[in-house]
Design brief:
Strand order of the largest sheet of chain A: 1-3-2
Strand content of chain A: under 5%
CATH superfamily of the largest domain in chain A: GntR ligand-binding domain-like
Low-confidence stretches of chain A: 1-15
Largest interface: A-B, 35 and 35 residues
CATH topology of the largest domain in chain A: Four Helix Bundle (Hemerythrin (Met), subunit A)
Order of helices and strands of chain A: HEHHEEHHHHHH
CATH class of the largest domain in chain A: Mainly Alpha
Number of helices of chain A: 9
Shape of chain A: globular
Radius of gyration of chain A: 20 Å
Mean pLDDT of chain A: 90
Number of domains of chain A: 2
Oligomer: homodimer
CATH architecture of the largest domain in chain A: Up-down Bundle
DNA sequence: TTTCCTATTAATTTCCAAATTCATTTAACT
DNA sequence: AGTTAAATGAATTTGGAAATTAATAGGAAA
């Protein structure tokens, strides 16, 4: 119960959509999982979360239940909740699926995108390219602003695919991929020139060259995965351990 | 608290995974939404659900939160829950997306499927073909057994696609499509010979003719959608009403 | 009539304590 | 020793009451 209802504006008829504690916990916990602040496989005890997010048990459980159906949290009846686990095999499967789904989204978006769509891509690329990847200069530190703009850019590309379902699937897969990306961000930084990759993607998209845009995007996705795989992270198992409750 | 924990088997080491009230409500409510027993757009008040499922508020809310992230229920902070709405435009978008996703799943599954996969397809087709579409003879009545076997058959086809994500997406889209199908089931029954459609799909799949299998499956999906659209159901709006809270 | 404000009612959300279930240890027995 | 059973402790799950918020109705002012 900290910053709940920061401003209850009731002057004009525009109803201010006040949020709930459950939703606020949901957003925070989701972010903590994506950044790896809550580590893969970690047990999520209600008392611990109660303290961490300064909320009661009910809103905490509501958030956990929401996250469990998006596969960020895994639930076992009568045995509570875990952060979903990760594995090399899982990353390979995820990467493969992302390439399939994003290919459709890009092709459709390029076919149906209009002027406003093009402008949004240019704009979001500009904003992204002016923001540093890391919030520190020499070492890697999570930069929430860059992360947000990065998502905006990739979302702008596929925005006109014509299916809310497809957009939702892409987002869910990006969420999952982000968890792996954060695991290796420190290792890979600053080996990579992501700006050029994004620039190429933008140019191919704006010139409506679907084949090339798809190729660039898939290479982009695979490269990120390869960096994680080649980092040989000790805490990343080859496959999902079926005895592990965080397998999901 | 009716049939909770039907048998608490603790003889052998194999831990019997006892379920929770929340999960039981979740399953029941999900089914009620898929069959249309809880109608699209309907408000879901906690008191009403409390009575309907004979449970406390906490498990009911946990079920609602789970369903809301799978887009079967739509949630508005401080304003409660609705069954997700339906519309003609929504059905068109859903159908388009299903064709995209299932095409990938079928092609991959045909590429990677083994002997056991083929046998499972034959088996599930056999079971499906021996089960009546309707649980009554002349008029349509929901037949849970047929619905289950129907899902099993289509799942068997794509089972070897190699991606749990893709399988999950297919299932989510089938869930949504089922809601539309039930809306028009009474109207379309018994106009259609679904058995032949399934037979053709099975044969194309077993002969590893991916192009044909995809064509049949997409036609299958589109035909179902067309029946719903052409039924001109009075309660099916053209587009989603943005003022309607059940829009999601 | 319309708009705005207030009082009232209804519904949602949250906290918390009791009930249930799981995990671990200890004891008893073969 | 090894296995089974009971006992203890810890964690999850649940029901309901209290707090918060939205929706509604009624009345005053423009």
């Amino acid at each position: 119960m900290d910053e709940h209802r920061p401003f209850a504006d009731s002057r004009n008829g525009a109803k201010s959509p006040s949020t709930t504690v459950a939703s606020s916990v949901y957003v925070k916990m989701r972010l903590d999982i994506l950044t790896g602040d809550l580590r893969p496989g970690e047990k999520l005890r209600s008392e611990f979360l109660r303290g961490r997010y300064n909320a009661g048990i009910s809103p905490v459980r509501e958030a956990l239940n929401r996250l469990s159906t998006e596969r960020l949290v895994c639930r076992e009846d009568q045995r509570g909740f875990h952060v979903a686990g990760v594995s090399k095999a899982g990353l390979v499967e995820l990467t493969k699926t992302r390439c399939w789904i994003e290919e459709i989204a890009i092709r459709e978006s390029i076919e149906w995108g209009d002027d406003a769509w093009e402008e949004q891509i240019v704009l979001s690329f500009h904003r992204l390219s002016r923001t540093p990847r890391s919030s520190e200069d020499l070492t890697y530190a999570f930069n929430a602003k860059w992360e947000g703009l990065h998502r905006d850019f990739h979302n702008a590309i596929i925005a006109c695919c014509g299916s809310h379902w497809l957009l939702g699937f892409c987002e869910q897969l990006v969420d999952q991929a982000d968890r792996y990306r954060q695991l290796a961000a420190a290792v890979s930084y600053p080996k990579r020139n992501e700006r050029n990759e994004h620039k190429d993607l933008m140019e191919a998209t704006l010139s409506r060259d679907a084949d090339r845009a798809v190729a660039i995007q898939c290479a982009h996705i695979r490269k990120t995965a390869d960096i994680v795989l080649e980092a040989n992270l000790s805490f990343l198992p080859d496959d999902i351990d079926l005895a592990d409750p965080s397998r999901c």
